[in-house]
Amino acid sequence: MKKPARPLRRLALLAAAMALGTAAKASDFSEPWKNADRALVIDAYEYNAIDWAQLATDKRVVGFINKASDGLPPPYFCFGGETDVKLCKALWKRYAVTRELFQTRKVVAKALGLKWGAYHLARPGNPVEQANNFVDFAEPAPDDLIALDIEGIDPTQWMSLEDAEEFVRQVHRRLGRFPVLYSNGKTAQYIADNRYTYRLLSRLPLWYARYKPDIEVHFPMGNWQGYALWQFSARANCGRFSCPYRVPGTPNDIDVSVAPMKAEELRRQWAVGGLIDVPPDYLASIPVPIPREAGLAGKVTITYADVATPPTIEELVAVLGARWNKFRDGFRMPVVKTVPQRPGFGIVQYVAWKRAGQRTPEQLDAAFAAADPVSTASTTPDRSRR
């Protein structure tokens, strides 16, 4: 358990998410860390001491995921009694120091060639503000992995699953991609069993936490076909005398995860960002109605029809601008300077010129000669009747 603390682009994100979500084979559910070609990932929080020089000697370690934000940010302005003010200031100072440490670790890890990631520990409270806190705290680059850590389903202790879906949507609004879902076996199974209720959480790539040598019987295969990462080692099963895998330069209780792929493949797919098995427009889909008789009979499979995603602000501005230009042009008078300057150029010639749509002098002369002064009501005086 953790310590508290555009179309082508869419297709690419989807492909990466599907690869991470379905890559696990049968052998990857039983002590895959013993396979020397399986990539490993470290995740830590601010109180884990790291010897970076020693850590870099383990070439199987591909990535480092660090805890970023924890629930809502502490208030900057402090009110109340003396004790309350001191506690408030201490929390803010800790928050500021933790953020500086996070950014320092990011620089060091990337300098050593490690892939970087950040996770948010979900707490009760405004999910949109928590998502903003996470994005502002972590400042993730496009190639950084992002994750949402849901430790349980008790909404008095952890973020409710309904709020977690809103958190994920807000992260997608801010970054244009989805986080990985970190969850233990019990919580992951609950989400899988209620996947029609939690249609977004159930389609996030799964970072699975279970500290047993074999998970094939327990893994929620009805929803996820495989894991993106499996956190197999932590304080729960790693101590001074026994540990599934020890990473040099880290404490005994460091969290270690394994990927169902080789190191180079994990580096290519690291940032993920898409949904599993469904396109990103899954968010904007609706259930297809079923006949009443079929519903009463039971055993009905609910299907969803994709609908167009809501237009972006840029798209709305472009459409409104084009319509305004068309409306405005309808009230404009002809530009005088475009009319040929010729002697005797009256309404007859102007009509002929507009109908012809021609520009060369020869073509204009031909158009004028073909004009019918009678049908166009010429205003030239007829002096032959004097």
UniProtKB/TrEMBL annotation:
The keyword Acetylation does not apply. Residues 375-386 have a biased composition (Polar residues). Residues 1-26 form the signal peptide. It comes from the Bacteria. Keywords: Signal. Pfam families: Glyco_hydro_25. Transmembrane segments: none annotated. Residues 367-386 are annotated as: Disordered. The keyword Signal applies. PROSITE patterns: GLYCOSYL_HYDROL_F25_2. Belongs to the glycosyl hydrolase 25 family. This is GH25 family lysozyme M1 (1,4-beta-N-acetylmuramidase).
